[in-house]
Amino acid sequence: MKLGTIAGVISLCAILFSGSVLAYDCNGLPDWKRQSYYQVDAEVQYQEVAYKNTGEPSKRDVPDQGYPWSVLGACESTGDGGGGGGGGGPVDPQPISIYGAWHCGNDYCTWSGVRDMAEFDLQNHWLIDREDNVTCDYQEPGTCNPSVNLVVLSFVHPLRLLHQTTDDQTLNGVPKGMTQKVVDYFKNQGVRVMLSIGGITYTDAWNQALAENAWQLGLNAAAVAGTLEVGIEIDYEENRNPNIQGLQTFIDAYRTAHEYDASGEDHAARLTIDLAAGDRWLVALTEYATAKWLNTNTPILDYANAMVTPRQPTADEAIANWQEHIDGKPQYDPPIPPLAPAKLTGSLWLTGRKPVPECVDFSKSLQAPNATGDYVQTVMPNGAGTTYGMLGYMFWAAECQGTRAACTTPQDNNTCEGGMGEASDYYNIPIPMPELRQN
C-alpha cells in the first residue's frame, strides 16, 4: 500500500472515531467529481467527509486515498452538490469555442464530383439547422441556427495540389466537389470552413510533394485558401520518418501569404495541424509541432486537433489521450513539451457501422458533461499556457466517411440534430466562431 494511501486511511479513521469534535459543515460544499480538476485550497465532500486539497492541482485523485487531499471533518449535513467550495475550488466551465466536423462528401472523402446544392442541402441540412427550423433556408444568409461552427472539407491530395492537376476528379489541384457554392453553403450561415490536406490515404502523396517542392506546395495551398476564403488544415500522418523540414518550409511559404492572425478575422490565415489522439503516435511530428509551431509565445499554427482513435474510446480513454498532449512526454528523447489547453481540440467519432450517440443522443454521448464535457471545459494547463479548458471538439465525420459506416444522412436515419444539435444548445456553441484564446 502506498504511503499516501496509508496516510489517508489513518486520517479517515481518526475522523470516524473522533466524534463531533471534527464535524464539518458541508452545506454548499460540492461533491467530488472524478472528471473535475481541483486547484490547491479546493474543498469538496466525498462519502460524507469533507476534504481540502493541500498539495497540488488534482486531476483524478480520490480524496479518501490521501495526498493531495487532507481531511477536514465528517459532514454534519450533506451538501447539495452546489456552491463554490471556497477559494481555489472547481473552476467555472470554459466556454467551448470550436465545435466542428470533418466532412467527407458523398464519396468517402474524395469530393470528386460537383454537387447539386439542393441535393447537398437535403443530405447535410442538419449541419446548418440544429432544430429543423422551417424558416431555415440555405439560400438565405443568416436564417439558420447551425449545429456546428466549423466544417473541414476532407481531403485535398497534396501532390495534385502541388501540380495544380486537372483531371476527372480535380480542378487546378482541388477536388471538383470543393466549390465556392459548397463553402458558401456553410459560411452564409456563420459556419467557418477549412480544407484538409492529406489524410492517412494520402501520406505518400504528402511525402512526395514535400520532397519535390515544399515551398510551392505552401504557396499553392495559400492561394486556394485566399480564393475560397477558407482555412487550411495539415493532416500529415507519416509516423516513421516525417519530413519535418519540408513541412516547415510548407508552413513558411504559407505564412508569407497569410500571416498569423490571432483575431481570426482573416479566414485564410487559419492554419492548423492534426496530431495523434495522444503523444504515442506521430511522435516526431508532435514533438516538433508542439515546441515550434504551437507554443503560446510565438505561435505559427493556430491549434492542433487530437485525432480520433481507431475506434470510439471510453470517456476515460479519451481523457487520458488528451491529457498526454497537455502533460507532454518529458521522458522521451527528445522530450515532447506540454501543449497549452487553449491550443487543442479533442476528437470523437460521429458515426460507426450504425448510428452512435454523438450523432443521435447527446445525453448518452461522450461529449456529455458527465463523460468528457467537464474535462474539456476545465482541464488545467500543466506547463504551457495560462488558461484552463481545451478549445472544444471535432467529430469524424459528416456525410459518408467510409463504406462500412453509416452516413449522417436521412437515408441512413442518422442526421445529428439529437446529438450535435442538442449539444450545441447545451453548450451554447457560438455562431460564428469567436476569437480564440491564445494562452
Would you summarize the structure shown here?
Helix content is 29%, strand content 15%. It is an alpha/beta fold.
Give a written overview of the molecule:
- With 439 residues, the chain is α/β, with parallel strands linked by helices.
- It folds into 2 domains: 3-75, Seminal Fluid Protein  PDC-109 (Domain B) (Ribbon); 98-426, Glycosidases (TIM Barrel), CATH 3.20.20.
- Helix content is 29%, strand content 15%.
- The protein contains 11 helices and 14 strands.
- The protein has helices at 3-16, 117-128, 158-163, 180-187, 203-228, 244-257, 283-293, 315-327, 357-360, 369-378, 417-426; strands at 23-24, 43-46, 49-53, 69-75, 98-103, 150-156, 170-171, 174-175, 192-198, 231-235, 271-275, 304-306, 344-349, 392-398.
- The strands form 3 sheets. Strands 5-6-9-10-11-12-13-14 form an 8-stranded parallel barrel, surrounded by 4 helices.
- A hairpin with a 2-residue loop joins β2 and β3.
- It is globular.
Characteristic key phrases:
TIM Barrel, alpha/beta, 11 helices, eight-stranded parallel beta barrel, Seminal Fluid Protein  PDC-109 (Domain B)
